[in-house]
């Protein structure tokens, strides 16, 4: 029969918790140290540059859907969901291990540590290896590279691994604008950092990269100078859908901060099919209609001014006052 001494009970409970918790904490710490080592090794970072938020990266990777290639392999066999999931995971595991073995051929110690990780851990490791290599190639200056990683954290290296050189260049361009104080902040919002940008891209995934490349990049000065970029980083869902397409609310926000003229020009670049411009034109027409007679007169004046671009129209339109140009 166990004694009822409270100290004895608390001691047993402490030992029990230590047996369960300490190994998991040590394992988490070991994984974080490994990710730090991978990032530092392949990005060739100085020892004094921390790679922050590797734990956030691991949590995000665990939620990532399987790559399309693995899905295709799994879908080839018409089995139950359980078998499909098992096949998908096995196919991806083989692919990841093959790439890690190739990338870490010269680092057997790191490779042995990676063997102890679960599937999500290996995915994160592969992303960091690829990202470190890309970052090192795009930014050969070790000091600049270290500054960028210090500001962007693990998600910067992960973004380089998932989205390639263009992502690295966009991060460098943003950091340059931040350092110059060129990134406007809308009223009531906070300043953003490079880490905010890398987190937004990590959150929005391929859709975020698509939106940046097709909507923001062609109009960089407009987005940065008006505060639109800050607004997108803080609240991307108000600008785009998951596939990276501009949504109605996003158009309204662009008009709000950039104005109708700048918005029309920007949206014309965004949508080659003319949908965005048509949207602006439709809104402008609705505005005229809501003004009644004043709106109709406004349309007439616009048409009249536009017609003056034609020489023949100018000739006849100015006939009544042409005598003013003649010598007496």
List the helices and strands and how they pair.
Elements: H1 6-43, H2 54-63, H3 68-75, H4 81-103, H5 108-114, H6 119-138, H7 142-152, H8 154-163, H9 165-179, H10 194-204, H11 206-216, H12 220-226, H13 228-234, H14 248-258, H15 260-270, H16 275-290, H17 293-307, H18 311-317
How would you characterize the overall build of this protein?
The chain is mainly alpha-helical. The protein has 18 helices and no strands. The chain has helices at 6-43, 54-63, 68-75, 81-103, 108-114, 119-138, 142-152, 154-163, 165-179, 194-204, 206-216, 220-226, 228-234, 248-258, 260-270, 275-290, 293-307, 311-317. The longest helix is centred in the N-terminal third of the chain and has 38 residues, at 6-43. It is globular, with a radius of gyration of 29 Å.
Taking all Cα atoms into account, the compactness measure Rg is: 29 Å
Tally of DSSP β-strands: 0
Number of domains: 3
Helical amount = over 70%
Helical/strand content category? mainly alpha
The overall average pLDDT, rounded, is 77
| Strand residues, percent | under 5%
Gap between N and C termini: 128 Å
Give the overall form: globular
Structure annotation, total helices: 18
**Biggest sheet layout:** none
Q: Could you spell the SSE succession in H and E letters?
A: HHHHHHHHHHHHHHHHHH
Low-confidence stretches: 16-29, 68-74
